[in-house]
Amino acid sequence: MPEPQSYTIEEIASLLKVSKLTVYDLVKKGKLPAFRVGRQMRITADDLKRYIAGQKGEASTVSPAVSRPTETAFRPIIISGQDMALDLLGVHLEKGGPYQSLRTYTSSLNGLIALYKGQCDIVSVHLFDGQTGEYNRPYVEKLLTGHAYIMVNLMRRPIGFYVQKGNPRGIQTWSDLGRSDVVIVNREKGAGVRVLLDEQLRLHGLSPSAIRGYEREETSHLSVASAVAAGLADVGIGTEKVARMAGVEFIPLMKEQYDVVMLRTRENEPLIAAVLNVLRSDSFRTELEALGGYDVSQTGQIIAERG
């Protein structure tokens, strides 16, 4: 079988046995030249061989890379988070400048850690702090210690319980999760919804060990809602939009603040300006609102900055 001439980001990650985020970081730093076919980033087999040879300290037997304008005409930027609003942000950034967006679907906490390490350019956060009742700022201030940054609102969205049609268990409040007849399905550690649940359990004096189903983890709102729809759990937590997609009932609890964070560096100033221009544009807000389930009244507002 002939060797492929190029690989996708996912294939490179599998071959090197690393995460997609690591491959994105190599692309961002220019260590793995990439080109785009439609919406897909690809890396040639020869460039992969050169990278591997370089890591081994060997001289590459592959011919020197030919200059490919499509590989150097853009700046790859890594956008971290799961909401489709981030895909829309990436599309608008690509229209208005020399950017090509790479998407990684990392949780809020892990995304902030990646930003701290310089592995991402734009990170989404929706982290509730029970001590202050505030979203995001307390976490960003602590995790980005020593870094200048800017945090801007992307949107707000309803967050609540997923329950089966008719809500047979009569679940309405956080305290109901502690009942012996209620089984939950949880999100993975580091996810914004997981942080929200843990903070609410603490505020309501509930121990995670007393919550049935607490140890069962899913990695997206849709998989949580699907587990509830299938009767594998009585309740999960997520967004209203996904409840409609999965065919479960939604019990609203609060409005979640969903922000994006960028490091404030000299190199990033044009990117920050581009992001602000997109978020404050009528076209972006109109398209985002049309997706349904988003409050754009604060979109583009600077929530916090340092440096």
TrEMBL record:
Gene3D superfamilies: Periplasmic binding protein-like II (3.40.190.10). It holds the Pfam family PBP_like. One of its GO terms (molecular function) is DNA binding. Residues 96-280 form the PBP domain. Residues 7-55 form the Helix-turn-helix domain. SUPFAM superfamilies: Periplasmic binding protein-like II, Putative DNA-binding domain. This is Excisionase. It comes from Geobacillus thermopakistaniensis (strain MAS1). The lineage of its organism: Bacteria, Bacillati, Bacillota, Bacilli, Bacillales.
